[in-house]
Design goal:
InterPro entries: Trans_hexapeptide_repeat, Trimer_LpxA-like_sf. This protein has 612 residues and is mostly beta strands. It has a domain of 80 residues. A hairpin with a 3-residue loop joins strand 57 and strand 58. The radius of gyration is 29 Å and the shape is globular.
Length: 612
């Protein structure tokens, strides 16, 4: 289930979660024009106010997430031109300012994560040359500074974790030459010691020796009066075998938790007769099976939450007859299936929201017969009203007025051709409008106006050839434009203008011959252009102009007839010419003249199969 916070009255959406016109008031955070599509999420023009953070033009694509021109202000963090690809995440030129953290040239590959040259400054943490491989994670030369933690030459291998020369400082914990082998244990003389002081009175002390006489000892003081004392000796029938661990007759004292007859089998864990006392939680007859977990008759007391007869199956989780008391929320007969979550007969009390028969499908959320009712009046003028009816044709209606002028209105109908419509006016001029149709050719359209000039527009069609189009204007001159087609030849196009002259444009095609093209202009004249083709004959082209005249252009072709040509001219009448031939037929030609009469001319000849 998904919910869209409209003002203070949350409204649950369905079939496709679309969070539009979400506004977190209190002058702290505002999130506008967020759109979650079917298996695709787009978040555009998110603005967190209070002089803290602003995030604009974030786009989550189908199985592909792209972050463009995200800006976190308040002199704290800026993140630009981050691109997450399908099964591959590429994060470039991320800059966290305020002298705190900088992260550049991070590349996460398919099933393999490579993180290079990450630098967290402020004398706190630096990550360099960290490499996470497929099924194997290697982390080398990680250094946590600030006299707190240093971790060097850590190597995590497949099914086997080796941690060498780890040193946690600050008088907290030091772990040297610890080796965890395949489901076995920790050597004979491994010793864990830790003393930690938190606050004025909170003190955690622990001495643990693991050898022939395995003994766990711990004394913990929390607050001035709260004291947890535990003297637990585990020396009876403890057997750690290769891939099999059996722990019998474990007793945790301190009148807090008692765990008896725990048995860990090969790839199977069974917990029986576990009892947590202290009037907090009682969990009896818990059974975890191989690749499947079953939890029956779990009871959480203190009059807060009771959960009975929970059953987690293999790759499927079923939760039945869950009851949350305290007069707040009750959830009964929840069923989570494989890749599909179904939640039936959920009831949230407190006179706020009731949700019955919620059904989450694979990659799609459908909510039937959900009913949210709420009427709240705050102050003299602020009024929140919302009525929602969901059946075969799910309809959401909500009218919310905040103050004298702020008004939120939304109507949503979901059937065979699901349609979302929403219009929201904030203040005198701010208006949000949105209509979404979900069928064979799903179409999402959004137009949002903020203030007198700011306008957000978006249209999305989902069918054989999925097309995303979006135009967003912030202020008088700032314009965000984006068009995306997803089919055999996936194409992403985006144009973003920040300020009067700053422009960020990008087009990406993902198919047999994936192509990524991007042009970025920063300031009045500064221009950064780049095109990347990944296929049989990979091509990387880039042109960068810094200042009014400075220009750097480069083209790289990798194939049988690899050609690399580059010319750079710096002056008022700078001239850049470049031609690249790939294979027998593919030819790229470009000529650029930058001066008083700046001219950019380009002709490209590409064989048909390149874009097919």
């Amino acid at each position: 289930m998904a919910s869209v916070p409209i003002g203070r009255a949350s409204v649950g959406m369905a079939s496709v979660a679309m969070g539009r016109t979400s506004v977190c008031m209190a002058g702290v955070a505002r999130c506008r024009a967020i759109v979650y599509k079917a298996g695709v999420a787009r978040c555009r023009a998110i603005v967190y106010k209070a002089g803290v953070a602003r995030c604009r033009a974030i786009i989550y694509k189908a199985g592909v997430a792209r972050y463009r021109a995200s800006v976190y202000k308040a002199g704290v963090a800026r993140c630009r031109a981050i691109v997450y690809k399908a099964g591959v995440a590429i994060c470039r030129a991320i800059v966290y300012k305020a002298g705190v953290a900088r992260c550049r040239a991070i590349v996460y590959k398919a099933g393999v994560a490579i993180c290079r040259a990450i630098i967290y400054k402020a004398g706190v943490a630096r990550y360099r040359a960290s490499v996470y491989k497929a099924g194997v994670a290697r982390c080398r030369t990680i250094v946590y500074k600030a006299g707190v933690a240093r971790c060097r030459a850590i190597v995590y291998k497949a099914v086997v974790a080796k941690c060498r020369a780890i040193v946690y400082k600050a008088g907290v914990a030091r772990c040297r030459a610890i080796v965890y082998k395949a489901g076995v244990a920790i050597g004979r003389d491994s010793v864990y010691k830790a003393s930690v002081a938190i606050g004025r009175a909170i003190v955690y002390k622990a001495g643990v020796a693991i050898g022939r006489d395995r003994v766990y000892k711990a004394s913990v003081a929390i607050g001035r009066g709260s004291v947890y004392n535990a003297d637990v000796a585990i020396g009876r029938a403890i057997v750690y075998k290769a891939g099999v661990a059996r722990c019998m007759a474990i007793v945790y004292k301190a009148v807090v938790a008692r765990c008896r007859a725990i048995v860990y089998k090969a790839g199977v864990a069974r917990y029986r007769a576990i009892v947590y006392k202290a009037g907090v939680a009682i969990c009896r007859a818990i059974v975890y099976k191989a690749g499947a977990a079953r939890c029956r008759a779990i009871v959480y007391k203190p009059g807060v939450a009771k959960c009975r007869a929970i059953v987690y199956k293999a790759g499927v989780a079923r939760c039945r007859a869950i009851v949350y008391k305290a007069g707040v929320a009750r959830c009964r007969a929840i069923v989570y299936k494989a890749g599909v979550a179904r939640c039936r007969a959920i009831v949230y009390k407190a006179g706020v929201a009731r949700c019955r028969a919620i059904v989450y499908m694979a990659g799609v959320a459908r909510c039937r017969a959900i009913v949210y009712k709420a009427s709240v009046a705050i102050g003299r003028d602020s009024v929140y009203k919302a009525s929602v009816a969901i059946g075969r044709a799910i309809v959401y209606k909500a009218g919310v007025a905040i103050g004298r002028d702020r008004v939120y209105k939304a109507s949503v109908a979901i059937g065979r051709d699901s349609v979302y419509k929403a219009s929201v006016a904030i203040g005198r001029a701010i208006v949000y409008k949105a209509s979404v149709a979900i069928g064979r050719d799903s179409v999402s359209m959004v137009s949002v106006a903020i203030g007198r000039d700011s306008v957000y527009k978006a249209s999305v069609a989902i069918g054989r050839a999925i097309v995303y189009k979006a135009g967003v204007a912030v202020g008088r001159d700032r314009v965000y434009k984006a068009s995306v087609a997803i089919g055999r030849a996936i194409v992403y196009k985006a144009g973003v203008a920040i300020g009067r002259d700053s422009v960020i444009m990008a087009s990406v095609a993902i198919g047999r011959d994936s192509v990524i093209m991007a042009s970025v202009a920063i300031g009045i004249d500064s221009v950064i252009m780049a095109s990347v083709a990944i296929g049989r004959d990979s091509v990387i082209m880039a042109s960068v102009a810094i200042g009014r005249d400075s220009v750097i252009m480069a083209s790289v072709a990798i194939g049988r007839d690899s050609v690399i040509m580059a010319s750079v001219a710096i002056g008022r009448d700078s001239v850049i010419m470049a031609s690249v031939a790939i294979g027998r037929d593919r030819v790229y030609k470009a000529s650029v003249v930058i001066g008083r009469d700046s001219v950019i001319m380009a002709s490209v000849i590409v064989v048909l199969w390149l874009v097919s």
